[in-house]
Design brief:
With about 425 residues, this protein is of the alpha+beta class. The protein is built from 9 helices and 21 strands. The chain has 2 domains: about 250 residues, 3-Layer(aba) Sandwich (Rossmann fold); about 130 residues, Coagulation Factor XIII, Chain A, domain 1, CATH 2.70.50. Strand 16 and strand 17 form a beta hairpin. The chain starts with a strand and ends in a 29-residue tail after the last strand. The chain binds adenosine-5'-triphosphate. Keywords: ATP-binding, Nucleotide-binding, Transport.
């Protein structure tokens, strides 16, 4: 099913969705708002009259109007998860509303292939007077399910939302977290091709959020695509592979999600994130943004505990990870993936504490995890490490996407080697085979 929900430039050709595996395309979308309410109502009426009479909406700014979105272009592929990143007022929610068809753009169009489930606002458009049960039926019917299909899935929806008996109480008696949980449960049980998620997961408690992110990862495996709006770097990194950075209604950059977040954070903070050689400090997270266990800082140190700005092949080095637990953490492991800058797509080294039989637990508070490398095996070069704290319960607690570092070598010959081999030299005297030097 190809649903062209908004077409203001109908003469144009549809993008080749089939060929490019694209299931959603946003083309040259612009939206303006008016700061003055009275004037806004007046302009709104004028626009309606124009639409009825077949005249195009004004494509220019009238008094007090501004572009909330200006010429936005991006596409979403099957199984792709895109994060809309940007400061307050950047236009993220407006864009999601346009994609979901809640509001119309003034210019451009959105083309969608498949079933779209929007989770915008708490309770995803629930009616306050109706009970949770009635809302589930209405909501899932709007999302395209038949009465029989809803009845079949109803118990699963209630179980996932953990609403219990409150399912028969009016939604107006629900807390914001309960409404969000039920909204999320409805949306994921409609087998959507595309999920639009606007901050709704931020209201749940940590345990429920973890459950949601785990389910999102499973849905993505099965082929669902997402567009996520969140101010939580952690949510974005654990869910999305692509980022679109919006600023004042315009796309500043898009691409690899970690790189887009880095650029956004550098712009957001008055001073960029501290990135000194051999050490990386993460931006401080609030409890709300955390999955319970955060990485605060990573760095290298030598045997004497002194900070190392660069590593030397063959020497003793500790990789140190300062962790902060907001609550007692029963079990987690540490995974480190090291890549050489020049060989971007190949892993140079993958270390997983679980493979080494090391599963950690942690009490609420701070701790340093140290990985001792008796002899750094990497050859001379520029590297970057991805460091994550993972658990079987969740994709990961926290991750440092890119910790850059340099390895130096004291020997000239190391340049021709692929790695550093730890070795010892001996000479055995054959005349007297019992003595060796
Ligand atoms: N109905 C409206 N009438 C007038 N201005 C609006 C309307 N809706 C949004 N805006 C304005 O449009 C701009 C973009 O708002 P939007 O809610 O899309 O931003 P956002 O990036 O989602 O922000 P946040 O992170 O705070 O949710 C803001 O300046 C906002 O005040």
């Amino acid at each position: 099913m190809i649903k062209d929900i908004i077409t203001t430039t109908s003469a144009e050709r549809l993008p080749n969705l089939e060929q490019d595996n694209i299931i959603l395309s946003v083309e040259a979308v612009s939206k303006k708002f008016c700061r003055d309410l009275k004037r806004s109502l007046y302009y709104g009426l004028k626009d309606i009259v124009k639409e009825i009479t077949g005249v195009n909406r004004a494509a220019y700014l009238r008094k007090e109007e501004f572009w909330a979105l200006n010429d936005i272009n991006f596409s979403l592929k099957k199984k792709e998860a895109v994060a809309l990143i940007g400061a307050n007022g950047a236009g993220k929610t407006t864009l999601l509303k346009i994609i979901s068809g809640l509001i119309k753009p003034d210019k451009g169009r959105v083309t969608i292939k498949g079933r779209l489930a929007p989770l915008i606002g708490l309770g995803a458009g629930f009616n306050n007077i109706l009970t949770g049960r009635e809302n589930v039926y209405v909501n899932m019917a709007i999302l395209g399910l038949t009465q029989e299909q809803i009845t079949e899935r109803f118990e699963e929806v209630v179980a996932f939302s953990e609403i219990g008996d409150a399912i028969d109480a009016p939604v107006k008696t629900y807390s914001s977290g309960m409404a969000a949980r039920l909204g999320f449960a409805c949306a994921i049980h409609t087998d959507p091709d595309i999920l639009l998620i606007d901050e709704v997961l931020a209201v749940g408690d940590i345990k429920f959020r973890l459950k949601c992110y785990k389910r999102l990862a499973q849905l993505r495996e099965k082929g669902t695509s997402f567009i996520l709006v969140s101010h939580s770097t952690q949510s974005i990194l654990s869910t999305c592979n692509t980022g679109v950075f919006l600023k004042k209604g315009m796309v500043i950059t898009s691409g690899n999600v970690a790189e887009v977040i880095n650029q956004y954070e550098d712009e957001l903070l008055s001073s960029p994130i501290e990135r000194v050689p051999g050490r990386l400090k993460q931006p401080v997270k609030s409890k709300q943004d955390s999955f319970g266990l955060d990485i605060e800082e990573v760095y290298f140190e030598n045997e004497q505990g002194e900070l190392l700005e660069e590593l030397i092949s063959g020497t003793f080095t500790n990789l140190c990870i300062i962790c902060k637990a907001w609550q007692n953490i029963e079990s987690f492991s540490v995974r480190i993936i090291i890549r050489e800058l020049a060989q971007e797509n190949n892993y140079t080294l993958v270390i997983n504490s679980e493979d080494d039989g090391k599963i950690f637990k942690m009490k609420e508070g701070k701790a340093i995890i140290k990985i001792s490398l008796p002899a750094v095996g990497l050859r001379r070069g520029q590297y970057y490490a991805k460091i994550s704290l993972t658990s079987s319960l969740i994709y990961f607690f926290d991750v440092v996407e890119s910790f850059p570092f340099t390895v130096r070598s004291v020997s000239k010959d190391m340049i021709e080697s692929s790695f550093f081999q730890v070795r010892e030299w001996h000479k055995v005297n054959l005349e007297n085979q019992y003595s060796h030097e």
